[in-house]
What we know:
The protein is α/β, with parallel strands linked by helices. It is built from 12 helices and 14 strands. It binds phosphoenolpyruvate (PEP) and cobalt (II) ion.
Amino acid sequence: MTATADPMAAPASWRGLPAAQQPDWPDRGHLQAVTDELAGLPPLVFAGECDVLRERLAAVARGQAFVLQGGDCAETFAGATADAVRAKLQTLLQMAVVLTYGASVPIIKIGRMAGQFAKPRSRPDEIRDGIELPAYRGDAINGFEFTAQARTPDPARLLRAYHCSAVTLNLCRAFATGGFADLHQVHAWNQDFVAQSPAGQRYERLAGEIDRALAFMRACGADPEELHAVEFYSSHEALLLDYEQALTRRDSRTGLPYDTSAHFVWVGERTRDLHGAHIDFASGICNPVGVKVGPDTKPSDVLALINTLNPDREPGRVTLITRMGAGRVREVLPPLIKAVIAEGIEIPWICDPMHGNTFEAPSGHKTRRLHDVLDEVQGFFEVHRGLGTHPGGIHIEFTGDNVTECVGGSHEIAAGDLHQRYETACDPRLNRGQALDLAFIVADSYHS
Ligand code: PEP
Ligand code: CO
């Protein structure tokens, strides 16, 4: 160690490397003041919690648990309300119950929540009616409104992102352990929904079976505490490295660095350059981390990413989140899995069936077909079954509200309906009924 190195400082080696998708902050001094302030604020999560999640993910790699990870494509500050957070958590809990009951496997619940405020964009600018402005990059950076003022990156937004993450996580923690997530509430989560959709009605029947099982257990004198609360973890894409570094702290027990902005962070398809800043940052923190991999990923890329992020082969440390597209998953996923097996590596594989299946509807709305989403998940299961590996989970974009952003579902949404409630700040999300439809299909096909 050199005389000037501060052993308690957060790892900063990424600063010397190319960092894709960073905002063009107009005032670097303001950014510095904000990140200094963030660095003095309390951690949002604790190192010990991240360690438990890493153990859970190690169990996923061994085939003993299944991940349900999901939430908005882009959270918004306006969406950090009790109602919106509860609706999302309720949907996640309902999906988890369907999966636990149908697939008979422990479900690790990870929200794309409490920090998902920054987005990579395919173009830095957006043009409307001949006017060119910076693209919306998420509420942590600029505003959605198409005005020069809103679209100018503002570092003060990073502080709001931190505070919105804190209130969201606080709500999630309270809902997860304060009685709301008690399995005896399995009917209550559905009350406002049962009449609205076929998925809600199918869920109601399942909830009835669970109720009977719980009554039976109670009659036997069994009332395990696991039924009264759930473990909930937060996650987001580690995109804004200034923010992530400001939230990175040394664990007081071990002196090791953890990114305390979330339990789990992932590096996106567009920023996972092996020699870039994002992978360097992720390699320096001890949280469990994910990497998104798309259809053009080569087996050698996957092995290099695993070696860089997890040289010690710590179980559960790196998760691969595949997002291949329904049409390609059966062809492009096998070589990646085979390469990993050949190295004797066991990792959690998670299927993101959303990002490879986006298209533009005739109305101009960015959308996805539930049919394609289901097909990619089925393809993911088929490939893993064929190779004897474990399909470890799903990563989805959904909301608890009754939006019309993706087409299809048992309560059919047609392309012509998309305008009715198209509310996403970024990619189209499954609504609650479509999310439950997906959970039932995944539960049915997990063992088949
Ligand atoms: C996302 O998860 O919203 C995203 C941008 O995904 P990807 O990095 O896979 O494109
Ligand atoms: Co998205």
